[in-house]
Amino acid sequence: MLLDGMHFCKGSVVPRRALSRGLSEAVACPLRSSWEAQSSRRKALESGVERRLRQLREHRAAQERAKRCAHACARHNEQAQDLALDPKGSSRGRLLTDRDLAKLESKRRKAEAALTKAEADYYGACVAAEHARQEWETLLYQTGGWLQALEEERLEALGAALKRYAQEIATLGPQATQCAERVQEQAACVDVGEDILEAVRLRGTAPNVPEQLLPDFYAEDLASPMKPQRRREALERLLELLQKDLDTERRGKQGVESLAQAFREAPRFGDEDAQLRVEEKLQQLRQSLAFLEASRHKVQCVLAGLEGRPRPPHPLATHLEQRRDRQGLSQMVLKVPPWLQRRPSSCSCAGSEEEVRDAWDRGSADGHAAPTDPPSEASSVQGDNVSTEGLYANSLPSRCQALYDYRASMEDELSLRSGDVVMVHGRAEEGWWRGELNGSYGLFPASYVQELEPGLPPG
């Protein structure tokens, strides 16, 4: 098209034939080969993402089926439990024989076993769906990077073709000089990075906020009919299950972090792909920990409501959202907070990412990272009497007394029990103090202790 309107003399037929042959060999053929090669690669990448998405949808469907089955088994178990505990209510005035009582007890045991199996299947389906979501998200981000590389390769090929085109028409002589200069000016302005950014600005969607579907068990719905004692026992079993998985995931995360630290200290220890796989695994473990932490916090809140205690605080509480599924059942969703979301690997934000990760691992200074039982109402009232100035003043006390129990979640922390007297040696991170307890040195949250005045015995 750039040659339209140019008037060549009759003697320029041969040069134009040479130009046509040169454009075909140096421009058209390389572009066609590049397009054919990229088409197959793009199709393979897109089909991989579609396949993972179908797997995620299948896991979500299995999760919904398991949830309905678990809730149905829970309702059936409640009926069987009530009949077994109060057989007179179902006898309609007639006396029940030992055989009838044995049948009721057998039904109760079968219903309880079915409920245990259904809840285990539902929990397994929830975890499997979350793992499938993480795998799909990982592949989605990887595919985005590969597609960006393909687009950069395509733009570079177009730029190179444009330059070759300019070189070809530059040989036509004075008549094509002006056209060649214009094309060369445009070829010099080719900027792949700017083109990619412009494409992002024009076609970019809203920021991606991953959502984790947390398991919602029958016992968590206070509106569902269930004896308080059985509800409490069911919730405590759920807490034990979640705590067991949390401990397993934390140990796995520590192992992967050690490997990542070895890579950072000795880059030659592993190639770039191995380091990238370790970072991806670490990211998945962080999101799995958030999934389990949010699930445990949700169960703790229900248990606290049953016992008349205030809800325990948690850093992820503000990111929880309750919805209703198509069957009208409650569905709690964790919108993955920004500090746990994936970051582009090209961003030079390693320092800030390390700070965010450390903040999540240690938790805030109120001990939310690894609390034991939440403070009771009495201890909360006692904690309210402690002035904020006394807790966070610049001048540190020489001694302080623990108000609540605190379980250390990292090796450099101190575990506290209510009433322990700690010798304070200095301030560490904001809201954390460094002290000594029974010959052990470490960090502890300042909001869990009360300053002791000099000369006064612990109260």
UniProtKB/TrEMBL annotation:
Chief localisation class: cytoplasm
A GO biological process held by the record: signal transduction
Keyword annotations of the record: Coiled coil, Cytoplasm, Cytoskeleton, Phosphoprotein, SH3 domain
Coiled coil: 232-295
Superkingdom of origin organism: Eukaryota
Occurrences of domain REM-1 (ranges): 225-305
Region feature (Disordered): 351-390
Biased composition regions of type Polar residues, renumbered to the chain: 377-388
Span of domain F-BAR: 1-195
Gene Ontology terms: cellular component: organelle
Entry-linked PROSITE patterns: F_BAR, REM_1, SH3
Localization terms from the record: Cytoplasm, Cytoskeleton
SH3 domain sequence ranges: 395-454
Pfam families, sorted: HR1_TOCA, SH3_9
Family matches, as PANTHER family: NOSTRIN, ISOFORM H (PTHR23065:SF7), PROLINE-SERINE-THREONINE PHOSPHATASE INTERACTING PROTEIN 1 (PTHR23065)
Record-given protein name: Nostrin
Organism: Ixodes scapularis
